[in-house]
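Before the break, one more example. Copy the sequence into your notebook; we will annotate it together after we see the structure.
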Amino acid sequence: MIALASPSLTTRIASERLVLRPPRASDVPELRRLLRANAAHLRPWEPAPEPGQDPSSLTAIANRIARQRRDWKRGDSYALLVTLREAGEPIVGRVNLGGVLRGAFSNAYLGYWIDEGHQSRGLMSEAVRGILAFAFGTAGLHRVQVAIMPRNAPSLRVVEKVGVRREGFAERYLRIAGIWEDHVIFAMTSEEWAARGA
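Here is what the structure looks like once it is written out:
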């Protein structure tokens, strides 16, 4: 098997309204502001932090970005910030291809979130299309999977708009906000992506 070179940490994926790019250390203050402003909005959809930990602290964010950049270089995951194509490219969310496995599986798990004030504008659908193009192009993956809680209507709309195929239902799949939650499983393969002319 031929090993793929890891995509560059200078990767930029531009779409009509967005630019997706890997996080950098200089993003820490802006990400902190965004995460704190969206704490209540994101809390129902994320794993609960360990007692005494603040995932929106400057140290936690800096450590997370350093880890994401190391994982990117190793090809283990690809985190991309979602920024607007306007002056300063303000950050409005994140998309992530995590748990990348090569070999016979050649799969990654897609996750995403967007600032509450930027919901319902089609921005996350645009971002997901961008990261799927990256997954099946530059990253050379064969399959991308996403798991969504049945009550997360905005996330379900994103995969429906993008055309990601529903595969099944997983009971008590992930522990989210302290509760083992059921998830609907969706996936897309590189063949499906190519067939769409994407």
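The mean pLDDT is 94. The helical segments are 28-37, 39-42, 58-74, 123-136, 153-162, 190-195. Try to locate both features in your own notes.
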